[in-house]
Structure formats: structure tokens, C-alpha cells
């Protein structure tokens, strides 16, 4: 649909209905985020004593507090650490499995695929307590790797699902030609196949990042000090003197930034990824 | 695609199996263990048989939570699916504006769930939040920590805000895959806008919409963090959904037996409904392939 503007009522430029709908929807999405940003740039006095639509007394102190206090910014480093670990582990095990599901049929393949998916459907609340006991008993409590492994519960099935969708789109003749040319499986997989599904791997990595980054119930249950995620650190703002709204808002804004950065790179593949490679 | 039969493919699956066995099967067995046993402390356990299950099935608390959960999931599905499709139909098809819309719409999806809760907690406060302040100024009695309707409205609007974009993105991906020729044919036949939607766009979106419904159902049925941050399950128990109740029971009161029995029934309900969706979905896939 083109966005040709025609003259409408009283010679005013007529805007298409589509644009109005989108503008309203985006306004609905952005308003709460704007409010958080707005609050993060105010002093607590201004937040509590006057109601202003934009900061009258612009201040970056809230951000300074977070970026200079180690107990704050290590929260970000912890979150980053387990998210990256989880991405690496999930991709490493999911790549060969997705290849197997997309290329071969074998005993029980369909049941196995559904069983994997059931783990994506498992409520984290069900697993919180057993995870706590399991990781405590093997001495991994409060480590980054414990959270990374716990997040594999829902991320590995997701990775297999998305990658399988992308790999299905690669013609099988490529495999056969490579084997005739004398490639071994591992060389073929690393040298030829992986580059062919590179965009799929990128999209999968994005989704792994996303679901590990936004999850809190498991990561909070499995950590206390050393690996505490930033999202859990935010409860610190509740002190004896009430809630430090400015710092809370600033911490919130900073958790949105990494997501906003990675979105830009995958914007053209987001939809396909959400459709699990099946469009 | 025709697949070759090859039993050695199992070796490629092995790493996934081992990992999932460690991170899912072992913990799940612990839950099963607790569900059938009772303890008086000191790590001594007694066989309790199906007692916990009977207790839970007779407890009003669980049925109430289940009722609230079903109400919540139905309401958000009934709003998000049509709204998401509607937004997708209005999105620009290509170019700069399409990219911009995609990026901005994905933004809520990447915010940590407790920050989503925090955003709405702040946004809805009467003293410092834009929404609460505006409603208050309009003379509407709105307080999500005290009013039943205000609390429910807040968590539903929050979920719509958080996840409608997911449905819209999926529907958009489905729409993108429709060849222009279909629209041209419809134009020649002078089909109305509604008929184009009903007979061209909707059937083509069916596959991705099923994924959207499946994902939204699963995720809304296990929602925990966002409503917990905003209302904490209150006022009273009015927004205590299944996961909130379960965490209260397991980690708050440490009632391991009932909590485990609860967990297993909870999991089975999700599995059952998801299996139905999954079967419908794979059947749709097959029909499209043939």
C-alpha cells in the first residue's frame, strides 16, 4: 500500500488510516518507556514533589550512582556473563541436533522433538526449588554457569526448533555433493553447512540472548551474591528511607539498552525468527 | 523434504539429550519424589502415596488459582490475537518506516520481566505515574494495590503492552509471504477488503497465528514476574495466578509435598493443551506442504 497523500477535508493533507493506527499503537508502546526515561533524569525531590512531563532539573546523577558503584555494575557483568555462556552452550549442542532433525528420520524422532518442546513449555516456577537443590548439591550454587545451565531448560529446545526451521530451507543436494567430493561429516558441517545457515544462527543467538536476559525467577533463585543478575540487584533501591525512584528508573533504562542495541542488527529477521524459521 | 532413514543420527542428538536430562529430567524426578512422600524434617521421608494429590484436588486454593489463571490467559489471548493481526495489517510493507516499526515494536519484548513490572508499577501510581495521575485527575478511582478491577486491568493492559507486538510480528511475517499476484487477482475480481482478508490473508496467516497462540498460551499460563512485581498477587488473592501461588507454597512456606503435587498437575495441564495446539499446527504444516 502506498502512502500517497491526497487533499482531504478543508484542504488539510489527508493522512492514511494505517499511519494513524500505527502511530497510536507505537505511542501506547513508547509512553511507559518514556516515563521511565523521564524519571531516570530527574532528582528524587522533583519526582516526589512536582508532576512534570519532562525533567525540569536535568540530572545524570542517577546514572553516575550506578556506573560508579561496584555493587551496581557487577549486576550487569553477571547478567552478561551467564547470558553469553548460555548462548555458547545452547548453540553448541543445538546445531548438530537441529541438523539431525532436519535431514534424517530415525526411531522416535517425532516424539523426541515434541519432548524437547515440552521443556520450553515447563513453567519455571515448577523448576525453581528442584534447581536450587540440584545446583546446591553439586556445589554450583551462586555461579554463572549454574544460571547458564538452568536457562538451557527453555533455550536449548527453542534453539533446536528455530535452527531446524532454517536448516530445512537448505537444499539436501548440497550435503550429497559435498559427501561425493569426499568431505567428512565434521569438515562439511563446519566449512560448508554452518556458513550457509549463518543468518539462522544469528537469529537463534538473538533469541537465546533475549530469553536468558529477560528471565528472572530462576536466575534469582540460583544466585545470592557472586552471580546476582542486575534485575535482582534493582530491589536494592528499596531502603529504610523509602524507594530511591530515580536510581530504580535509571537501572531499568540501562537494562533496556543492550536489547535495543541487538534488535537493530536483526531487525529484518526478527519476524522470521519468531515464526521459528517457518515462514 | 524427503528425509533419509539413518539411525546414527541419534549420535548428533546425544549432546542435547544429556544436557536436557541434567537440566530437566533430574529436577523433575525430584519433584515427583516429593509429590509422593511426606517428611517431618531431618531428611527422613515417608511414602505418602496419592495423599498430596487428593489434598490439592480438594483444596479450594488451587481451583481458585486455576480459575484466575484460565480467566487471565483467555482474556489476554482474546485481546492480543485480534489486536496483533490488526496492527500487522496496518504496518508499512517495506522501506525505512517498516524497519523503524519493527525495531520499536520489538522493544518491549527485550525488557527484563521484572523491569516490565517496575515500569507499570511506576506508570500506574497515582502520585508519580503518568497513567495513574491522569486517571486520578479525570476523577476515576484507580488504585491497583487496592481495587480488584484496577489490579486486573493493570496486569492485563501490561501484558497486552508487553506481548501484542509478538503476535503482530508473526502475523506480519505471514503477510509478507503472500505473493503480489494474489492481491492483483483479488483486484480484478473486485473483491472487498473484508473478502481479501477472509480468503487470502487469513488462510495464509493461519500457520504463524497458531505459533502465536501456542507461544502466548504457554507463556501467559506460566507468567510470574510481571504481575508479582506490580500487585504481589493482591489485593487479597485476587491476582494470585498459578505460578505466584506455587512459588508462595514451595519457596515461601516450604510445603514441599503439596507444592510438588501442584507442580505436576500444573505441568500436565500445560502439556495437554500444548499437545493439542502442536498437533493442529503440524497438521497445518503438512497440508501446506502437500
Automatic annotation (TrEMBL), chain A:
- Which domain of life does the protein's organism represent? Bacteria
Q: Cell membrane: present as a keyword of the record?
A: yes
The record's subcellular location field reads: Cell membrane
Tell me the InterPro entries matching this sequence. BP-dep_ABC_trans_perm (IPR050901), MetI-like (IPR000515), MetI-like_sf (IPR035906)
GO terms (BP aspect): transmembrane transport
**What membrane topology is annotated for this entry?**
Multi-pass membrane protein
> What SUPFAM superfamilies does the record tag this protein with?
MetI-like (SSF161098)
Keyword set, alphabetical order? Cell membrane, Membrane, Transmembrane, Transmembrane helix, Transport
* GO cellular-component term (any): plasma membrane
| Predominant location | membrane
- Boundaries of every ABC transmembrane type-1 domain copy: 76-266
Residue ranges annotated as transmembrane are: 20-37, 80-101, 113-132, 144-167, 188-214, 245-266
Q: Does the keyword Transcription apply?
A: no
Family statement drawn from the similarity comment of this UniProt entry = Belongs to the binding-protein-dependent transport system permease family.
Write the protein's name: Trehalose transport system permease protein SugB
The organism encoding this protein is: Shimia thalassica
Automatic annotation (TrEMBL), chain B:
Bilayer topology term = Multi-pass membrane protein
Has the keyword Cell cycle been applied to this entry? Answer: no
Q: Which domain of life is it from?
A: Bacteria
Under the heading SUPFAM superfamilies, the entry gives:
MetI-like
According to the entry, every stretch annotated as the ABC transmembrane type-1 domain falls at 66-277
Name the Gene Ontology biological process terms.
transmembrane transport
Q: Which Gene3D superfamilies match?
A: MetI-like
GO CC terms, sorted: plasma membrane
Q: Name one Pfam family in it.
A: BPD_transp_1
The protein's name:
sn-glycerol-3-phosphate transport system permease protein UgpA
Native species: Shimia thalassica
- Phylogenetic lineage: Bacteria, Pseudomonadati, Pseudomonadota, Alphaproteobacteria, Rhodobacterales
